[in-house]
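Incident review: delayed structure delivery

Summary: a single-chain prediction request sat in the queue longer than the usual turnaround. Root cause was a stuck worker, restarted by the on-call engineer. No data loss occurred. The affected request and its eventual output are reproduced below so the record is complete for anyone auditing the incident later.

Affected input:
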Amino acid sequence: MDQPLLGQVRNCWSYNCLRTWLPILSWLPRYNLRWLQMDLIAGLTVGLTVVPQALAYAEVAGLPVQFGLYSAFMGGFIYPLLGTSKDVTLGPTAIMSLLCFTVVGGQPSRAVLLSLLCGLIQASMALLRLGFLLDFISFPVIKGFTCAAAVTIGFGQVQNILGLHGIPHQFILQVYYTFHKIPEARIGDVVLGLLCVALLLMLTWMKTSLASQSEEAPAYVRVARRTVWAVATVRNALVVVCASGLAFSWDAYGHHVFTITGKTTQGLPPFRPPPTSDTTANGTVVPFGEMVEDFGGGLAVIPFMGVLESLAIAKAFASQNDYRINTNQELLAIGVTNIMGSFVSAYPVTGSFGRTAVNSQTGVCSPAGGIITSVIVLLSLEFLMPAFYYIPKASLAAVIICAVAPMVDYRVVAKMWRIRKLDLLPFTVTFLMSFWQVQYGIIGGVAVSGALLLYNLARPQLKVCDRGMLVMELDTGLSFPATEYLSHSIHTQALQASPPRSVVLDCHHVSVIDYTVVNELGDLLKQFKLRGAQLILCRLQPSVLQVLQAADLQGLQCAVSVEAALLMETCNLQDYASE
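Output delivered after worker restart:
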C-alpha cells in the first residue's frame, strides 16, 4: 500500500475524525462536578415536563398513552453520543404526533414501522450530506404549516374538554360534529378541562412575568422567585397530578364524573425488531410492501418535517447560547434515534421546542441532561403506569391546547404583508391545504414557493438605458429558464427597432452560464450581424468568459466595461477587449 493511501486511511481513523462522528468526545473530557449538578437539575425538570406531554401527544397520534412514553426515552440516550447541541431534547411532539396520525391512523404496529423507515431516510440523508435539501422549504411554508397544525391539534382536543365521543378525525367534519354534539357534553369534563386550562395559563403568565433575578434582592425574594419559576416550569405535571387525584377521589366514592385514560400497559417495552407485516381486524395479513405503500407521501413529509423542526430549534438555541451545530450530524442523531426507537415500540420523534427551552433555561451544561430525563421516563413506565389509569382526558387535552396555542403566530401575517406581500401566497396555500391533509399542505406550499423561485429565475430584471447604444444590465444571474425572456427582450427593443439598435449586455451579476444560454447568444450574434448591428458583452466574470471562449462563438465581442463597449461601437472595432 502506497504512502498517500496509508495517510488517508490513518486520517479516516484519526481522533479528530472520530470526534466529528461522535461529538461526545468533544465535551466528555471537560465534564466536571458543576456540569453534573446542572445537568441533574435540568434533566429532572425536563423529565417532569416530558411525562405528561408524552402521554398527551400519544392521544394526538391516536395511540395508547404508553406509546408516548415509549417514544420519549431513546433520544436521551442517543443524542448525547451523536448530537451537537447541549440544549435540544428529542421526543414526541404535537406536530409529529399529528403527522403520524394522518399517515398511520392510530395503528401502533404501523407507527413503529414508520419510525424505522423515517430514521433510515434521515440517517441516509446525513451520510450522503443532503441536509441542504431542507433549504428548499421556505419560512412562509413552515409558518403556514405550524399555524394550521396548532389549530388542528388544539381543536381536536376540544372534544376531550367536552367529554364527547364519536367525533370524526377529518378537520371540517370534526368542527361540525363538535358543535353539533355540544348538548351531549359532560359537565365534569368541561369544568375540569376549563380549570386546567386556566391554571396552566396562570402559571405560564406568572413565569413570563417574573422580573430578572438581582443578586442584591433580599434572600426571601430570590427564594420566592425560584419557587414560582420551579412550580411554573413543571406546571404540566402539577396539573395532571392534581387532576388525577381529583378523579381518583370522585371514583373512590362511586361518582364517575370524568372521562379517564383507563388501563395502560405497565413495564418497559420489549426490545424487538419493528413489525414488517400487519394483521387487520378480520385476520387479513398485510405484507411489508403494502404497508409502505399505504404510507404514501407521508414517508417523505414526516422525515423532512422531523429534521426541519429539530434543526430550527437547534439553530435558535445555538445562536442564543453562542455555540454552533453541525447540520448533518443533527440529521444523523435524529435518524439513529428513530431507528433505535422503533425497536422499543416508539413512533417518530423530533426536537421539542418547549422542552428544549426548559432545558436551556434550567442551565443545562451538556447533552448528558437528556440521560436523566430518559431515566425518569423509564421509572415512570416501570412503576407509575397504574397511577396513569386515573388521568382525566380533559387534563391531557388542556396540556396539549396550552402547548400548541403559542404556535398560532398571527403576527407573522402582518410582518409578511409589510415586508413582502407575495410571501403570503405560499403561507396561505400551506395553511388552508393543511386542514384537508397535513402533508398536502406542505407539498402545496413547497410547490408554490418553488414556482415563485423559478419565476424569478425565468424573469430576471433588465435595466435598459440609451447611451447611443442600448445598455441592458441584468440585475440577477442568467440561467436556462431566463433564455427565452432575454432573447425576446433584445429582439423587441433592439432588433425590431427601425433601424436596428446595437446592444451592450452588462453581465457583471452573471456568475454561471450554461449551454442553453451560450446557444441562444450564438443565435443572437447571427441576428445582429444580419441586421448590421452589434451585440457586445461587457464586465464578464472570468469563469463566464472562459466558457464563452470555449464555445468559440462567431462574432463574439467582449469588453471590460460599459465605456469600453461604447468606444468599440464608436470606433467600429471587431476585436474584443479583455483584461
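Verification: Confidence is low (pLDDT under 50) at residues 573-579.
Action items: add queue-age alerting; document worker restart procedure.
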